[in-house]
Every structure is written in C-alpha cells, then in structure tokens.
Amino acid sequence: MNKITLTINNKKLQATVEGAESLRSLLVRLGYISVRDSDDREGFAGSDTIIFSDKPVYANLMLALQADGATIRTVEGLGNSRKLSIVQQAMIDAGVVQSAYNAPAAALLLTWLLEKHKNPTRAQVAEVLSGIFIRDASYEHYYLAVELAKEMRDTGAYKTSISPTFREHLTYVGKPKSKVDGPQLVAGEKSFVEDRVLAGYKTMVVLRSPYAHAYIKSIDTKEALAMDGVVEIFTHKNSSQVTYMQAGQGNPEPSPHDRRLFNEKVRHVGDRVAAIVADTMEQAIAARDAIKVEYEVLKPVFTVEDAMAEGAPIVQNGVVEFKVGAPADLADYNKKADPRDGKVVYQFPLHGDIRRNVASAAHGHIGDVEKGFKEADAVVEQTYQTSQIQCTPLEPHLCFAKIDNGRLVVHASTQVPFHVRRIVAWVCEIPENKIHVIKEKVGGGYGSKQDILVEDLVGYATWITGQPIYYRNTREEEFVANSTRHPMRMTVKMGAKKDGTLTAVYMDVRANTGPYGNHCLTVPMNACSKTLPLLKCDNMKFDVITYYTNILPTGAYQGYGAPKGTYSLMVCMAELADKLGIDYYQMAMKNKVEPGYMLEILKGLGEGREGTVVPVGSCGLDEALVQGAKMIEWGKKVTSDDPDWKIGKGFAMIQQGSGLPGLDHSNAWAKLLTDGTFQIFSGGADLGTGLDTISVKMVSEAFCIPMDLVTVISGDTDSCTFDTGAYASSGTYFSGNASYYASEDLKKNLLTEAAKQMGEKAEDLICQAPGEVYSTKTKKTLSYAKLSHDALTGTGSGQVMGRASFTTNHSSIPYGAHFAQVAVNVRTGKIKVQKFYALQDAGTPINPELALTQIYGAALKSIGHTLYEDMIIDENGVCITANLTDYGVPMISEQPEDFKAVLIDIDDEVGPYGAKSISEIATNGAAPAIAIAIHDAVGIWMRSWPFSSEKILRELGKI
Ligand code: FES
After folding, report:
1. Which of 698, 701, 706 is nearest to 677 (CA)?
2. 43 CB less than 6 Å from ligand 1?
3. pLDDT per position as a tens digit, 383-395
C-alpha cells in the first residue's frame, strides 16, 4: 500500500493505493464514476479520458501511483445535472448526447480544447476527439456543439440553426428541445446498471468453450467449489432445464426455443460451460481455472455451404417439438435425435429441418417470375455475400440482480424489459409477479440488447443463491458470446425491358444463424420484406433458408436484415441498368413505388404468418431521390488530379418499417400531480434515442406546459404498463403513440373534472399556457394545481389520470435515398468516402436534432460495415478480431469529408403528430451506394462485403 497526494477538480486529497491499481480504478473508488471503461484497458474507446497535468490521457492506462502530485480533471469538475457547463448544454442541444457512455469524456475534451483555442478549427476538433469512439450519434454534430458553445460563450445565445423545425403550429413537437435525460448523462451522474450495484455484491464469471462443436463428457467443479470465496458454480448438471431462447421477440416467438441456460453440447467457441459466483473477481477467475472439463470434440460447420452439404455435422440434433402445428411424422423424425443435444421447440412451424441444419425457411411470390424473365430484354443474376459484424455498444452487456422483499429485482441494460421479465420467469420457473425489471440507461444497444444474453443467467443465479450478483461481459465476450449480424448469401435475379421497366425479381436468401436460432426467420425475411416493396413489379419471388452452424452467435442488429437485402437488390439493379446501357438513376425513378401503389408482395412477408397487403402511404422517396441527385450532381463526372485516384458516384433507395403492425403493442399512463405538474409512465424503452423526450413532449403539447414540468418514468415493469420493446423501429411510432393517446386521455379526464369544478361544459374548456383550463364561454380559468388539489380533497373525485393502449394494422413506412461519392486508389485499393448524403423521410421528426444525429450515427456505422468491420474466425472457429482495434470501427478520421443528413418533410396519418421511424433505415444505404460508386469509379462490382483494399485490388486484377 502506498499513500499518494493528488488534486482532483481543484480539490487536494490523499489516497492509499495498491501498486498495480489503475488510475481509473482509483478515481471510481473516490467517487468519480464518470471515468468509465468500454474496452478492458485496450486503450481504444476513450471512455476513461481525463485531463492529467493539463493533457488528455486514458486513466485506465496509467497506474494510480503515477498520479502522486498530479492535477487531474474529470467531468465532475464541469458542473452537475442541475448546473451544466456551456459545453455540456451545447452537446445536448446539438443532439450528440444519446446513449452517452462517452459523452462525459467528450465534454471534458471539448472544454479543454476551448480553453486552449478560443476558435478551434475543424481539424483541431477532430484532433481532440480522435481518441474517442462514438457509435450512436457519429461525430458530425460535435462540430456543431463546439460552434454552439462558442456562440453561447461569446454572445449569450445560439446563432447557428441546430436543425430544421417542423409543424409551426406546435410548440414542442418538431423542434429541437434539449433531450430530457441529457443533463444527468452528460454530467456523468449515476445512470447505468454499473451505477446501481450494491456494496457487498457477488461477482460472476463464465467458463466458455474452447471448441466450436463438442459434447461435454464430464465436468468436475469439486475443487473449484471448495476454493476461497466461491459461492456457487452452475453447469448443465445443476441448473435450470427449461428450453428457451434469448431473442426478445413477441410471444409466441418466431424463433425456435433451442437452448438451456447451459447445454451438454457446446456449439461455438465461447459458448457457456459454467458460471462461477464468488466474493471477488479474482476468486471467481481462480475457481474458473480450477474446473476440469472433458470434451468429445465434433467436426464444426461454419458456412452456409458447409451446413447444407450432404452428411454435414448436425449442429442441433435434439428432439423437435411444436407448440402448435406438429407434422404427422414427428415421432419418426425424432428417432434420429441425440438426447445430449437437448430440444428444439418451435412455437409454430417455421419449416425447419434441423437434421439438415435448416433452422427455418420461408417462400413466397406474386405473379409469375418465370414469365417475367421471359418477357425481359436483359436479365442479371448475381450472388452477394455479407460478413458477420458486431454491434459494439460502448457499454457491454451487463446485469445486476438482487432479492428484495422476496422478489427478484433485475437492473438491466435492455431494449425489452417486459421480454426480460417473461424469459427470466421461464428460466427461474417462477411467476412474473415475483420479478421486477428496471431498465437503466442503455449505453448503446443497436439491436444486441433486444436479446436476453446475460439477464437469464444473472437472474437465475441470484434467485437460486439469494445473493446480489453483478455480471459484465468483457470486450472479448462482447465479440464471442453476443449477438451479431447474420452473415448472408443472397442471389438476386432481375429482368427488365429495354427502357428499364422491371419484369421480374427473384431473391434467394441463405442466412447463417450460427449455433442458436435467435431471429433466424425474421432477420432474413426482412432482407426481402424491407426491400422488395420498394419496387413496382408484378412478378416477384423469394426463398429464404436459414442454417445452423458453429460460427459465433447471431441475432438482432439495427437494420435487421434490410441492409443486406438492400445491398444485393440495389447493386443487382445497377448491374442490370449497366447491362441495358441505361442510367441507374432513371431506372430507379421508373421502378420505385409511389403513394397508393398496392404492396401485394407483403402478403407473403409476415413474420411466420400471412402479412397484410397495404398501399404505399406517406412517402418521401421521390423527393429524397430528386433532392439527393441534385446535391451530388448525379451524372456529372468528377476527376482527380492524381491518376491513382478514380472517383465515382452511387446511391440506393431505402425503406424500413415503423414497428410491426398487428404484432407490436404499447401502453402508457399519465397522471396529474398535486401541484399541477405531470408524470407519464411509458412501457417503452429509451435506448438513448430520445423516446423519453417524445413522451414528455406528448404531455407538454397536450397541456401547453414546459417540458420541465413533466417527468417520465419508463421501462420499469412494476410501474409501467406492457410494451413489446424498442426494436423493429417501433419506439416513436408505437410507444410514442401510446404516450400521445395517454396524454389525450388524461386531457379528456382533466377537462371533465374541470367542468365539474367550474360548473361548465367540458366542450367549452381548453388547456392553455401557463398551465390552466380556460373557458371559451365564460373566460374563467382554473389552474391545474387548484384543479388537482380540489380533486384530491375529501369531497373530490380522485386522482386525475389517463391511459392508452396502441396497436395498429397500418404500416407507416419511412423511405429515403443515400448518395455517396467515393475515390478509389487503383494502386493501393483504398477507398475514401468523399461525400455521403443521407436523405430520409421520418414523417414529422419529433426531436429533429436527435433524428439527424441518429441518421449520421447509423450511416457512419454502416460505412464501417461496408468498408472494414469484420469478425474473422479461424479454421477452429476462434474469433481473431475480438477487440475494437483489430475489428475496426469508424473513428472521427473515417467520417466522409462531406457528410449531410437531410430530413424530408412528409406527414404521416397514423404516427404521433405524423411521426414515422428514423434510425434503423439509415443503416441500409451505405453498402449499395458505395458499391455502385466504386463501379462508377473503376468499373468493378463489389459483391462481397466488406470492401477491403485486398478485395478491391483482386477485382481490379492487381493481385
Ligand atoms: S482503456 Fe479507455 S475505455 Fe478502456
């Protein structure tokens, strides 16, 4: 032990430190919790940035001992959520404080920069943020935040426009109005699961499989169990035998239940073998190392081609059961099952055949594609391949659970609190009333937190041991034991007349679901259902087959199949235009759908059941294409002075959905408090995207009161009503609509109560600023505070409340077009994205500044997927890129030189105040737009994603 003296945020203090303790650990121990860690001391993400003796450093990479005599600044020195600094407020106003795991570090860096340089250049901003990884909002609006902070500092007001505004008759909706949870997030205050962990908690670590495919022949935990501090060790022998799945989807799920908490068979490198609960991390790791496991190693399969080969090893060879719709020959089918494989329970038939590694399949068509291909003047058929990629949320998957009042309380970083409750209840075999799930702030999800990847295990271990247990994935576990994007092989065949009119489109999608079938039907289906309805064509057909393999697990990822489908469909259309010798833009304009066009293809594209045919409703596709083509100067050739660099342009039409019509369900309720302020309880799960702000705006708009007088409670399964969760682009549309209708119901009830108290008719009353009921007939007013007080006296009629439930069969589809200009270096194969313009129709953007930053974030993420992100596994199934440095994610230097997000103004008839979804769709455009631009530049078609320099050079015939 050593004593050191240091100054933190102008406060001199002494601390006792151990020799190897990191400076971050010391700071957290001293209460500076804003200094977080995203990558286990890899030194990549920058969540642990502090100012040390006037220089930015990563606190994780320094020893606490090195701080002796040092002066340190952390974000806690800038302000707090009630009193933010100018920079912190500017970051919220610019819309960059979203999931915000790194927002405090960024606030500190920008503050330091503005102290050094009164008017920093763009290059200086980029330089200071070069060591910070931002996945949610991208980096573009950080430049805006600096501009805003400077203006506020110099003039006391903002001059630069933050975003366009929408719906001038409304006060809060369609206007940039500081995200409601921004202050606590940017101030680095307690927000996340890790901040809720109680002293005296037990640690959990997981023993993971070194093999891609093996049976556990024996497992000996005796010695480990006897070690110091070990509380319990769970294996397949002594834990829940319930067969379930981890995908957070509506019940009954369109994913097979094909796993237990621990399986006798391991199906990927990193699969769970045992979980150790101990007093300390060191003890848990020591016990993990003392467990003896004997494996019977099996041959693995990694690709779709391996999995479909005759005689291929079978990944899931258990007993098949069906909740409904079992085939007549099931008993015969099950004769070949190996009991060590457990079970595969289909909730309804998904046309799987697990003995041939088929997890699910779907087929559908309209018209007659064969006839359509015969009528075509040209036909193109090509195969496109996408790779396995990782969501990389800055906050890894983690969970803290405890027993309180005889119930299991789960603090979760989740997109689906109600699915967490249901699935944990299944695994623990206890009723849902025994479980309380609290969704904490989510430090990045992007789909991976739609799956119940850690809460099942932590919830179960806590319920059995009665101990408070904290578990957190390492960054490596994020790669090897988490959900990722399904690799897919898509063959697209397209035929068209000479003038470009499409005559037939066929998509053959072969998806690789890996060891378990999370989302195995719905992700590959989305490759078709979120792409084919972009095109007017009477003859369309699709076949979707998903295979089990032994790659790392897959699941939901923002875009959910649509990025891959869009890539293959749009590039194939560009290839066809090229073959026909016509302009791809003209071809897109000719074949794109328009309002009123009946989307017959949707009939075959339901989630395992028949879909609903609807006409195209509100649609900004045409405007996005026209405006985008103008911005990029489509048709105008750009050349470089350097002969090594060739320049080209491309674009893609994109669409998504707004939740799942006929499947999703949201609920909310709201109440008037005794002083005339309001609370709204939303079942929706804000992932940092601004859903809570939307709920607040719904109340503020209904009652003409400032947002500060409304508090939102969300994603808490005890106080909020059911919501299917934040996935499938449903947040604004479904959960936002529940909040809208709950506010309207509250308003109706409030006016009824006011009518009683005022002796007036409710139809003569309106709500008005600054928080009162006004009679248009008698001109009398009644403040909300007096109304509430009188309603709650001995003679009053009680609490004024409102509630709503929202479902719909209507599809509000967001549309858009993404344009790219790239430069290709024909000597090195390097690609530079010079321009990227993302034009999208989100209906009424309720939080326009956040809508813009979500477009930027999603587009940059997909540029990373397109160009370099890749989970590479070796011949044994070991991921060799299981850290952020090797995997490669876009940092500020990788941003397109000219990057613009544009909101196309379109009103929708069903969304709250006309809103549709915004961010998932923004992941769909980069791959096709860049591939088509590369072809325009150098004449090669990139049919395998990511477009590495090596692949470019190979296609160019240089290697
Ligand atoms: S070392 Fe910087 S975030 Fe982990």
Report:
1. 706
2. yes
3. 999 999 999 999 9
